[in-house]
Amino acid sequence: MRVALVQLASATDSAANVEDIRSQTAALSPADGLDLVVLPEASMHDFGSADHDLAAVAEPLDGPFVGFLGEEARRLGATLVAGMFERTDDLPFNTLVVVGPDGALRQTYRKIHLYDSFGYKESDRLRAGDIEPVVLDIAGTPVGLMTCYDLRFPEHARALIDAGAEAIVLPAAWVAGDRKLDHWRTLLAARAIENTVYVAAAAQGGDRYTGHSLVVDPWGSIVGEAVSTPEIIRATLEPEVVARAREINPSLANRRIRTSS
Q1: How many CB atoms are located within 10 Å of the residue 177 CB?
Q2: 255 within some domain
Q3: Domain contains 256
Q4: What pLDDT, on the 0 to 100 scale, is given for residue 260?
Q5: Catalytic residue among 86, 148, 166, 231
Q6: Cys-Cys with 83: which of 41, 148, 176, 201 at CB 3.0–4.6 Å?
Q7: Is the Cβ–Cβ distance between 40 and 201 less than 8 Å?
Q8: Is residue 257 part of a domain?
Q9: Which residue out of 59, 86, 111, 166 is catalytically annotated?
Q10: Active site includes 111?
Q11: What domain count does the chain have?
Q12: Which residue range or ranges hold the CN hydrolase domain (predicted)?
């Protein structure tokens, strides 16, 4: 599966963000043969300050942002994953949308673990999704979806693997701070190693966020990594690598403690 991670720095202007994404993805073409393009969490609209009203800027799933993603997916002939704030009659969801190569909305994942940590409280502004792992087939690969803070919960990743995932895609807006980059790299590698899967994480860059979009293979090795500026990371996720890792390191098969279904 050929993947491109698009690292960007969103603003609190949804229309400007669409134009920024359009400008960056112009570097991608159908000739690249991409199967999957991943944008960060909050690609539609940045979180902004703690008093910024996300409910006022949230969009429905049939709104302009998802419509734009559909246009790009059709242009590239690829599946697109991106983060947005989804309108409800109360607090919005922090939602990943998956748009297929035909431009149609295929799947959504509403962030389960809200970032109530490091002095911040995401649950004051957004509502958590149902506790339901989301795995879907993309170009023959079962892909599990997570968002940012979900990374700190290994049971979430394991639930995706138990649902059949052979890769995990994780859009994020990982807030910068002391030791945060170390946490980011370490946790991404840990989720890959302990589950013997690829992990592809598209991150927000700029001054506020850590950046460093990463692709990690099932051995925990970094296949590609950005820094903090806008950048596109490309990688090929090979099922043979997953199969070989699971043959040599059959830790999933050797488990004796399993969560109840």
Answers
A1: 12
A2: no
A3: no
A4: 57
A5: 148
A6: 41
A7: no
A8: no
A9: 111
A10: yes
A11: 1
A12: 1-239
Distance CA 9, CA 46 (A): 8
pLDDT along the chain (261 residues), means of 10: 98 98 98 98 97 97 98 98 98 98 98 97 97 97 98 98 98 97 98 98 97 98 97 98 97 87 48
Residue 123, token pair as written in the block:
């649950």
Catalytic residue among 41, 86, 122, 231, which?
A: 41
Tokens 């596109």, located at residue: 232
Range(s) of the domain holding residue 55 = 2-248
Question: What is the CATH number for 31?
Answer: 3.60.110.10
Query: What per-residue confidence (pLDDT) applies to 258?
Result: 81
Q: Is 148 a catalytic residue?
A: yes
In a domain? residue 258: no
